[in-house]
């Protein structure tokens, strides 16, 4: 067989050739843009020539600080297209972490959304490697800014070459992209994505048994493009010629609902908190969501109630998936097997609330206290992964050896597996509660609580306990209508029949909101401090 | 990213783990077998240990002479599983070609179906490298045979190790499979398939926009396993956990129709002549074919009438695909784009009678008289291909340089391309008719003739012409009911409004059948001789 490499550039080339008329619909600060893949292709090629003129060379990192829009899509292909590395930076991180990331990655050029300029202006003096700033704005004039040298994206494109070729000397194991984890403790850790990994991952997203991304799709990635490449959907959607809808900066649930109706979105991807927000909006408005064939949910476990609300009330198929920054990210996808169609509705919901089976192309093993766990839905163990889109290390980081040992990536996620091979995330290794020598899954308690009508969000953490080592405490946000009527006693009563006695939390605390990471996950570290503070104030 | 190789063994490992209960239903000479993937996995591992004991080493070729059944499936994984090469031998080739192929490939072991033993017994003396013969039989005793040493497949399996591991030292560019072209002239040419090529090709078969092979499928490959790995479907179906139905030796259209009904087949793949036969059977019987979601047709162009009969009359979606032995084989797949759903029924049929667009992962260029042709549906050129599942050469064959030049595989197929990028095979370079300096497509004339109610098959060939260089002659097989009522004049009249005057054949000859290659393609070389003879007899 021919030794032709798998390259990111080839994904866009296919869209240019075979889906020339298909569209990318992009909301920016100032307006809604509609571009064909022909236009996206020409603009990307212009951008490649411009980056080359700015001095970006093979292997250099090109950073982005941007929302989901077409310019961000263009740099997704332009940076790897010239052999450099697309480094998407999480704009929700602290300035301290952003400084660390940019310096650690040694970004040479930064492409920045207009509303993020102030953030970069403040830290400019601490950026050691950046040689040029590019503002991604619709406006004709450059904004006032202390950044220097500062270029306008559109101005640069005027001078670009619309026929600039994708680099021919790409080795498929060359890095194409890069993303840092949104670490809750310590410095963020960098992950390099190779051309090979991204292309194979795109194949995985197009399979009939996973997301089945197709030409006939209208895809709206709600998951940020600065977070694990929006789960790789911009790459796959471009390759397969899907229409792409990009909700742009600081979108609201209302905009999402409106876009779904207006552009007849068929597939959308995001974290549970986004879908909780959308659900609220759907309940308030009167939207036509009948075009949706799939809502993909990842980043954290979706409570059963959320799945049920989408499927029963709105007839919107809701799919759980699982992945991580280190895994490009798709690892498992939850879809009933053919013979599971005969299960009862409750059994189906139970199965679909799990994270699904491993997608083709990867290997997994689950390591418990005594080696690999049984597939019995009971034994808990850490999920370990291997495969061509699983990171082999953190970028220039000594912490690599903690997570990457024996050729496997140790995810830090604790799972059970049923006999179908379907995994269920029951916790993070660090969030598992160890009580009296037994493990308690904080996630299972959270899901059970969130299935209560009154509960909007729930996070369960461990507090130190002299007798039992650790004990669980539940932190709950109630839906507005229930704040006066539902209390601790009722929720504990609700939990008791569902769990062993020692699993039931010692206390339930009520909050107005639960602190979250920049990508919408519960920030348990901060929550633990708040709870600690709460109890010390009580004493 | 990790440097984990793409290997054929991993495809079956996934089925063993995640689809343990799913079934392979296999018809052999003596009975219908039903095996789970757990059983297939154990038997394959036993076979791997047995092959190793027979002395098969890494890189050695293991030949098969067999129909479509579960034992053939097991060797599909066992041979590459120990690092050796699965060499499927086309049992319909002449003994002379089979001898050539086995010696040229240097097959070390041959696995043979019982009814094919006599063929091998006759040529045994001329086989230079074969050290062991294995008969794939259900019977307890070995059949009488002059082959030596001769083993029974099932007897060998008794001694095998059901936990034998897949080889760990596979490089993904190692050869996993091998198939020789069914050459119409000269010696057959060998093509090596790599582990990488087969895995990537399997990804391509699972995409929502191609065959979308899925766990929920019941797949029946009618295309022989000895022909380009049954188009790769056994690999993909195993990986994705589909139920597989294998129609076994010397099947009839009746058996195919019965199996479709009985096992609720959802997808099936074969050449047009198979589907013409099935259509006849469906017209005679009263079969429930409602489970079928896709009939895949390749190997030769399907006439519009065939597509229409399946879709209109039986509501069976019919998909054209295109490939070759050198291309693993999937190259293009015909599926309407979303915006083509608005076309008229006639326009849709026209589009769907074309071979489709290039599947993700490959590159194509169409070379006409003056470089790359326009995508105007008019200009004809030779289809050239590049990609990780396209052969780079013929195995130890000097003829490689004719087909593999400048890094591209020159298919020998002449196509036009429309503005959607959809290709239409209009001829083989060697079958194109050159008349008065213009090209005439034999295939287009054939398709037009086969759209006539009276015509069962039509093949158009060139005969030498003093004035025009070449002129087309049509060779036609009429449906039985029409043999007395329809003649040359009516068919010519039928063609005239559809083509330029110089395209209309000079003559129409009627045949009882048209000679075909071992894989069901028209054997034009032989037809030309018959036609030559016909005219010389007339003179």
Q: Could you describe the 3D structure shown?
A:
Two copies of one chain form a homodimer. Chain A is of the alpha/beta class. Chain A has three domains: 8-251, ANL, N-terminal domain (Rossmann fold), CATH 3.40.50.12780; 361-428, Roll (Luciferase, domain 3), CATH 2.30.38; 433-538, ANL, C-terminal domain (GMP Synthetase, Chain A, domain 3), CATH 3.30.300. Chain A contains 17 helices and 27 strands. In chain A, a hairpin with a 2-residue loop joins strand 17 (363-368) and strand 18 (371-372). The interface between A and B is large, with 54 and 54 residues.
What key attributes describe this structure?
homodimer; 539 residues; alpha/beta; Rossmann fold; Luciferase, domain 3; GMP Synthetase, Chain A, domain 3; nine-stranded mixed sheet; seven-stranded mixed sheet; 17 helices
| Mean pLDDT over all positions of chain A | 94
Largest Cβ-defined interface: A-B, 54 and 54 residues
Main pleated-sheet profile of chain A: 9 strands, mixed
Oligomer kind: homodimer
Strand content range of chain A: 25-35%
**Based on helices, strands and strand pairing, what is the structural class of chain A?**
alpha/beta
Low-confidence segments of chain A, given as residue ranges, are none
Domain AMP-binding enzyme C-terminal (chains A, B): 444-521
InterPro entries (chains A, B): AMP-bd_C, AMP-bd_C_sf, AMP-dep_synth/lig_dom, ANL_N_sf
Family (chains A, B): Belongs to the ATP-dependent AMP-binding enzyme family.
Domain AMP-dependent synthetase/ligase (chains A, B): 17-395
């Amino acid at each position: 067989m021919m030794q032709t490499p798998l390259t990111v550039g080839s994904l866009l080339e296919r869209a240019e050739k075979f889906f020339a008329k298909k569209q990318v619909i992009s909301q920016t600060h100032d307006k809604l843009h509609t571009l064909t893949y022909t236009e996206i292709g020409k603009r990307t090629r212009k951008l490649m020539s411009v980056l080359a003129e700015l001095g970006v060379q093979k292997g250099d990192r090109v950073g982005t600080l941007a929302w989901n829009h077409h310019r961000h899509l263009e740099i997704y292909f332009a940076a790897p297209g010239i052999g450099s590395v697309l480094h998407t930076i999480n704009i929700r991180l602290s300035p301290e972490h952003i400084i660390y990331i940019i310096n650690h990655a040694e970004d040479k050029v930064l492409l920045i959304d207009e509303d993020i300029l102030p953030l970069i202006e403040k830290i400019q003096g601490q950026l050691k490697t950046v040689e040029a700033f590019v503002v991604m704005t619709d406006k004709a004039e450059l904004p006032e800014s202390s950044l220097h040298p500062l270029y306008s994206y559109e101005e640069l494109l005027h001078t670009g070459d619309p026929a600039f070729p994708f680099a021919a000397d790409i080795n498929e194991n060359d890095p194409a992209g890069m993303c840092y984890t949104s670490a809750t403790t310590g410095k963020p850790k960098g992950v390099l994505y190779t051309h090979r990994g991204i292309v194979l991952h795109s194949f995985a997203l197009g399979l009939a048994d996973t997301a089945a991304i197709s030409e006939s799709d209208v895809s709206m990635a709600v998951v940020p493009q600065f977070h694990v490449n929006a789960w790789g959907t911009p790459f796959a959607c471009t390759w397969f010629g899907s229409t792409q809808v990009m909700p742009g900066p600081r979108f609201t649930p209302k905009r999402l609902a409106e876009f779904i109706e207006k552009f007849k979105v068929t597939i959308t991807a995001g974290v549970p908190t986004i879908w909780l927000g959308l659900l609220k909006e759907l309940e308030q408005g009167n939207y036509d969501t009948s075009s949706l064939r799939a809502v993909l949910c990842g980043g954290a476990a979706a409570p059963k109630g959320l799945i049920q609300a989408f499927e029963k009330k709105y007839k919107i198929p809701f799919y759980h998936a699982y992945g991580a920054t280190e895994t490009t990210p798709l690892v498992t996808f939850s879809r009933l097997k053919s013979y599971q169609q005969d299960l009862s509705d409750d059994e189906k919901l139970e199965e679909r609330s799990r994270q699904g089976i491993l997608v083709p192309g990867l290997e997994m093993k689950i390591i418990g206290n005594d080696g690999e766990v049984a597939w019995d839905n009971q034994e808990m163990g850490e999920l370990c992964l291997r495969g061509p889109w699983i990171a082999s290390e953190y970028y220039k980081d000594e912490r690599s050896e903690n997570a990457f040992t024996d050729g496997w990536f140790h995810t830090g996620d604790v799972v059970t597996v049923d006999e179908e091979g379907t995994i269920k995330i029951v916790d993070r290794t660090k969030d598992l509660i160890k009580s009296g020598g037994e493990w308690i899954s904080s996630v299972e308690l959270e899901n059970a609580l969130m299935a209560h009508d009154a509960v909007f969000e729930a996070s369960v953490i461990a507090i130190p306990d002299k007798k039992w080592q650790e004990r669980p405490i539940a932190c709950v946000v109630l839906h507005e209508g229930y704040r006066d009527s539902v209390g601790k006693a009722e929720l504990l009563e609700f939990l008791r029949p569902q769990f062993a006695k020692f699993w039931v939390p010692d206390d339930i605390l009520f909050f107005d909101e639960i602190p979250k990471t920049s990508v919408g996950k519960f920030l348990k570290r901060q929550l633990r401090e708040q709870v600690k503070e709460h109890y010390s104030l009580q004493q």
